[in-house]
Specification:
Mean pLDDT: 89
Distance between the termini: 56 Å
Strand order of the largest sheet: 2-8-7-6-5-3-4
Structural class: alpha/beta
Shape: globular
Number of helices: 17
Number of strands: 14
Length: 470
């Protein structure tokens, strides 16, 4: 991929409402503030995928056998510079969860081996760790994080956990952590965590579900994680599902199979496979061959990487311009929402949490922890707890809600935003509060956040009056 020069064509479409109407396909009334969950892609990429489908159906066998492998190589070559690695070290998988599973299920575990992760890990990936520990001798250790927190504290907790395992006579075999957390949506000091792994001889697995197209990863190869996977369909404007899976050459021998195992697998005896091979002979290295054809599935999203990249360069003005707008609009918009709600935006003293395209706003709801004297029948904390908290609650919502009602309220807010207001905002309970996570994107503007702010204010009023927590 060539860098944009100063004399290259300037983007013709402004970000915000004009970009939305010119290049995206949302319903007119839909307010898309949750790009981070499922992403979307522009019309030009949609049309390219439809063309690919037509080409496949016109000649299924020739396309899948001969054309598709060549197109996959081109896509890998296009995406590799964005990661600062070579083409031979990048392949495609359907999603980051598949990449994480591929790594964790490929390693051989012995008694005393520990898989280390944070409490903020993506749920499906944490369940994968639980499954591996259930089916192998491995154990897991979870480091609890409560945000906001400073990066140096995260790194220190991580280092202390590795040292604790070592002092117990065990070994952290692999550690999994994010580039940007799913919830709360904040930047993690993943580069520093990789360095700690190197210090202790621990394998590092970076779940960069929110990575490519979201933060600058051009130095990822220099940082040198042992395994790295990142969704393209979330932030890179590629159809679902598509993710990159990076394994440096030094570690490719550890990944012996795709998930599921398919035609690229070779036995340790290095005997030739028996039966029919659906792929023609190629000069690809064995790692790439593992993932060239994995079962029969729709791999057109992988091919659309090139078209998404052209759109980002030629229409949007390049990666840096996209990142700058997404980060600035989400931070400005989140502060608008916080002003409407009379609350705050999650951040730490150094501001590191906000160096991404997410922002988290606290809802004006106060929760009391359950204790032995709490009246849980009506979801009410004890009178003593209420009296103690009541004096600390400010603003119009001077109602204390039992903490056991938080999951119910979170679900109710998610349901109402979609069904009643034609929008979607990621909502979750974290560290004693309900937070909403906003996504910045090139097709939204401040008015979209204002509309969301007043919607959330109305929902919180209804919750205080008893709705959503019966």
């Amino acid at each position: 991929m060539s860098m944009r020069r100063d004399d290259s064509p300037k983007p013709a479409v402004s970000f915000g409402r004009v970009m939305r109407s010119s290049h995206f396909n949302f319903a007119k009334t839909y307010n898309p503030l949750n790009h981070g969950s499922y992403g979307t892609y522009p019309t030009v990429v949609r049309d390219r995928q439809r063309t690919l489908h037509d080409l496949i159906e016109a000649r299924p066998d020739p396309f899948i056998r001969y054309t598709l492998p060549e197109l996959l190589i081109e896509s890998r070559a296009a995406v590799a510079p964005l990661l600062g690695v070579s083409t031979d070290e990048v392949v495609f998988v359907p999603n980051a969860t598949t990449g994480v599973n591929t790594v964790l299920r490929s390693l051989v575990y012995e008694p005393g081996d520990v898989i280390l992760h944070f409490s903020t890990a993506y749920g499906a990936c944490e369940k994968t760790i639980e499954y591996v520990c259930e089916s192998t001798p491995a154990e897991r250790l979870c480091i609890v994080l409560q945000y906001p927190i400073e990066d140096k504290e995260v790194v220190q907790k991580f280092r202390e956990a590795v040292e604790t395992v070592k002092n117990d006579g065990r070994k952290v075999k692999i550690a999994m952590f994010d580039t940007v957390l799913t919830f709360p949506g904040v930047r993690m000091p993943w580069e520093a965590l990789v360095d700690v792994c190197k210090d202790f001889g621990v394998l590092s697995l970076v779940d960069a579900a929110h990575g490519i197209g979201h933060i600058d990863l051009t130095r990822m190869g220099q940082v040198g994680p042992d395994f790295f996977t990142s969704n393209c369909y979330k932030w890179f404007y590629v159809p679902r599902g598509c993710a990159i899976f990076h394994v440096p050459t030094r570690n490719q021998h550890l990944i012996r199979s795709s998930l599921p195992t398919s035609w690229g697998w070779k036995p340790l005896s290095d005997e030739k496979d028996k039966g029919l091979d659906p792929l023609p002979a190629a000069d690809q290295k064995s790692f790439a061959e593992l993932f060239a054809i994995v079962a029969t599935t729709d791999t057109t999203p992988y091919i659309c990487v090139l078209d998404a990249l052209k759109f980002r360069e030629n229409v949007c003005g390049g990666e840096e311009r996209i990142r700058q707008y997404c980060q600035s609009i989400v931070q400005a918009g989140a502060h608008h929402v916080a002003q409407i709600l009379d609350t705050d935006v999650m951040n730490n003293k150094t501001g590191s949490l906000q160096r991404c395209c997410f922002a988290n706003v606290r809802l004006p709801l106060t929760f009391a922890p359950l204790d032995s004297s709490a009246d849980v029948r009506n979801g009410a904390p004890s009178a003593q707890t209420i009296e103690g908290l009541q004096n600390t609650v400010e603003g119009p919502h001077k109602v204390i809600i039992s903490i056991d009602k938080a999951p119910e309220i979170v679900k109710w807010i998610r349901d109402q935003t979609c069904k009643e207001f034609d929008t979607a905002i990621q909502t979750s309970f974290h560290a004693g509060n309900i937070w909403v996570r906003f996504s910045g994107q090139i097709y939204i503007e401040l008015a979209d956040f204002d509309r969301a702010g007043y919607m959330l204010k109305g929902l919180c009023d209804r919750i205080v009056n008893g709705e959503g927590r019966q």
